Amino acid sequence: MGTKPALALLFALPLCAQSTPDSHRLNIDSFEKVWTTIRDKHWQKNPGGLDWQAIHEEFRPRIERAKNIDEVRAILKEMLGRLHQTHFGILPATLYEEAGPLASAASPDAIMGDGSAGIELRMIDAQPVVTRIDPGSPAERAGIKPGWAILSANGFDMQTAARALAADPSIPEAMATRALLTRITGPIGAKMQLAFDSSSGNKTEKQLSLGSPRGDVSDFGNLPSERVWFEFRKIDNAGYIRFNYFLDLPHVIPKFGDAIQACLNCNGLIIDLRGNPGGIGAMAMGMAGYLLDKEGQRLGTMVMREAEIKFVVNPRFPGFEGPVAILLDACSASTSEIFAGGLKDLGRARVFGTKSEAAALPSVIERLPNGDGFQYAVGNYISEGGRPLEGEGVTPDVEVKLTRAALLAGRDPVIDAAMNWIKGAGAAKQAK
User: What is the CATH architecture assignment of 217-431?
Assistant: First the structure.
């Protein structure tokens, strides 16, 4: 989350251009494409259990009466909202989206940029709190520390914004986190004035220049370009792996394999997927192959309109045979949930942290005739244990929450809990 977030919530004022005859026809054509795509490609013949023809009859006249593109987008979003499923949305051609309850507090120039402070944050007790600092980042050079609560960013009141987001039960924690993260990004080289509560009410101000995000640029299909990074280290003879996306397959899978080889004799392995929003589903199978030694095991099944895709894992030898801990939080989604949920159901991994985002549907993004983007899901994932992850997420075996006190003391309670389990699992293995 220290770099540009996927599908970030952008703060911007709506554009209110009036429709022309040509744009009116393109908007109607866009509605028809959205409606037809869901009719033909949704995994259910009655999408969301709805009478989809009746939906057409209800919404088509409203689109025809719409006066501008903002009304069209609002109507389409309302129609998609009837599905009550994630990964269905309209992405304005301008890349602007309204900011929910924060729109009135946001200025029109508060647009996300590529520049990064190198700060990862989470909502802790309705406050935006620094949880990690990217190595070599502007934040690290400025001396910013985990556990500091962000008070303001270039004059924007982050505390008030966080409380407003936390008070609205309709806003998922992941979306709230990404919205707040947007406020500490901007153009590369731009100045960012940040105010923090560094500890017990002590106010600390820092000015820094936003730098290039961590990681290498990765492109995949119609998805936006993302910066992807991978890290591996050892903690008391346990391996620790963390990466921010299931993307950049040619580099991330080999790095994962190298980390496994370097850790064959480790007491345990921690795979930290906190903040990882997913990516390429097939990568979960490839990585799981280093952790499973039996043929025919699978992480789950993707149910589509005309077919089912089994997430079958092919073991890779030599693989890691010791205890595996996977760390999740509310910003872990999609492929992260498939990987963690599948290995949990197979009894191969123990999950620590907090419940995942519950957004596991595979999706496609296409351009509409009016220039907007349309994201739609094409399948439903069922875990090997028979549960859908969509709307439910992965529940950890051991719930552990981050606290400011622990972060300020230089500790990560989730990693600590995983390490304690690994030490105990290793001792139990020796005793057998």
Answer: Alpha-Beta Complex (3.90)
